[in-house]
Amino acid sequence: MIEAGDRAPDFTLRDQDGNAVSLSDHAGSRLIIYFYPKAFTPGCTTQACDFRDNHQAFDQAGYRIVGISPDPVERLRSYRDEHHLPFPVLSDPDHAVAAAYGAWGVKKNYGKEYAGIIRSTFMIGPDGTVEKAWRNVKATGHAERVLAAVKG
Fold it and tell me: What superfamily would CATH give domain 12-151?
């Protein structure tokens, strides 16, 4: 599990348009990476729209945003278009990137245990180092908490 001060695991995933996107594409930039379980679900949509609504403030603070879920590219295209997301959403169908970041694991819901995405967010510095990690977060209000940390 990666923590603040660790090097962010590199990755290459497909975005909503099928283009390859790598962490290294953002070298020299500050980045917010958030992992979410499934497009079009209430909590995930709330979270994405909160990041969308705060996108300009993140941009002004020098941060780009990337969302990652196990959804297929086609579903992500519809999700981004329907909710007017101004940032890329990436497909991690085999959960490899989520696992590398510690955002894949055992979850409990209504007394059942299962493997899935653990809603998590990572602030990555321009040198590729994790500056801050949030794990097992609540969707509502999370983007605002991340923005407060960005503004410091």
Answer: Glutaredoxin (3.40.30.10)
Would you say the C-alpha torsion 121, 54, 62, 72 has a positive or negative sign?
Answer: positive
Q: In the prediction, which pLDDT does 1 show?
A: 83
49 is catalytic: no
Contacts 24+ apart (CB under 8 A), 54-57: 54/143, 54/144, 54/147, 55/86, 55/87, 57/147, 57/151
Which candidate in 44, 85, 90, 143 is catalytic? 44
pLDDT mean for each 10 residues of the chain (152 residues): 95 98 95 98 97 97 97 98 98 97 90 93 97 96 96 85
